[in-house]
Amino acid sequence: MKNFDSAVGQPPPPHERLDGRNHEWVHLHNADIISMPDKWEFPWYAAWDLAFHCLPLVLVDPEFAKGQLLLLTREWYMHPNGQLPAYEWAFSDVNPPVHAWATWRVYKIDKKRNKGKGDIDFLSRVFHKLLLNFTWWVNIKDEHGHNLFQGGFLGLDNIGVFDRSAALPTGGHIEQADGTSWMAMYCLNLMHIALELSIYNPIYQDLAIKFFEHFLYIAAAMKNLGNIGINLWNEDDKFFYDVLHCPIANHSKCDVMQLKVRSMVGLTPLFAVETLEPHLLEQVPKFKKRLDWFLENRPDLASLISRWTEPGVGERRLLSLLRGHRMKHLLKRMLDESEFLSDYGVRALSRYHLEHPFVLHFNGNTFSVSYQPAESDSGLFGGNSNWRGPIWFPMNFLIIESLQKFHHYYGDDFKIECPTGSGNFMTINDVANELSRRLTRIFLQNKDGNRPVFGYSEKIQKDPHFRNYLLFHEYFHGDTGRGAGASHQTGWTGLVAKLLQPRDVRQP
């Protein structure tokens, strides 16, 4: 990106250029080979898209995948304040912080391919730069220092009641269930990376402790917002919601309310889960000693992160935002075919809102969210993206991976009804496999010889020159599996390649 100053010998640029789009990113100098979201409709990079791209990429070219993750943390991409550029139209927007997750997954896959030898240089280089990014998140997006995160856009375009990139029409701010959950996940990702690095250099145990403690404080904040008794969890609905803080006229306080939209936002707490192996804890004695201190001296915090004190299968320990009670209730709703569960994966918005739209009236204006399984009826973000009902591969992939981690701890004794109301009970791992089957079904021929991805196009379904050439769409119809949005989104929809691997290969 060129400097906003005038070129030598040229007249000065107009003053408004100094406040134009991306004006804070004058350090940017991008002239590299980058994995794009789409070669035709979205030929520009986006930080979280690229992170997901690296999972299918590592299966065919590990060095390129590692290089892509390193690239966005380099000083000619990352802002001096630690922010990663979101996407080219608005670098200062905020994508979910999945860079650490992708780095850890790419490292582990590459390590397994190299017979247990991991690329520690790659892991440590990305980790050091992500320390800056984590600090940026904490300083900028935690508005009141309560470990609750506003986040903003977070990549889920029109999923909320309001445009999450803009100032609220109600004034005030929103404590986002997904922003806070993403940060809890980020803590656990960085903690696990620090523990891996600690095996080679014990000083990293201090950083592992730091991220473990921050995870605890986020868990506490989700239960009681800023110690004022407001919860992101709704016990009546058994679901997580965003919380809106509206300023009260002529008053210093805010009116607080949950925005009761049943969306993927409320499922993101599932993502904040990790298991720790007993042999790993033996290798990091300083870290283990600090954990034991918390168990003894802060049982109020330790009790929030699931069953840390109770070893599971293989004597593993579980770190999760969800204790068994809440996890069961979230999964019960997620696996309900009248709500989130489709024949083709998990919808981004519950089908409940087809007949029960969420409606908010404020100062004579009406804001609503309704179920739209394919194309959007909203003009937000150009109107060509929709998170109010369709199936999105990256979120489904994270759900599947999270379920595998829960199973890694609970084992075969923990079962849940799938689908909800069917009378059919499965282990959590079997549920993960069932979701994988439903997602891959999008691309496979059904009993009529048709592929759901091609929808009702007779030409593409039957013509031998088309029918076997698949398109990796941006997202998919929440009821039929038809491809929608950009038609060459081979990056994150390419995650299906990981789902098609043998089960023992794709375990977390």
TrEMBL record:
GO molecular function: Glc3Man9GlcNAc2 oligosaccharide glucosidase activity
Domain Mannosylglycerate hydrolase MGH1-like glycoside hydrolase: 43-149, 321-490
InterPro entries: 6-hairpin_glycosidase_sf, 6hp_glycosidase-like_sf, Glycoside_hydrolase_63, MGH1-like_GH
GO biological process: oligosaccharide metabolic process
Disordered: region residues: 1-20
Pfam families: MGH1-like_GH (PF22422)
PANTHER family membership: GLYCOSYL HYDROLASE FAMILY 63 C-TERMINAL DOMAIN-CONTAINING PROTEIN, MANNOSYL-OLIGOSACCHARIDE GLUCOSIDASE
Protein name per Swiss-Prot or TrEMBL: Mannosylglycerate hydrolase MGH1-like glycoside hydrolase domain-containing protein
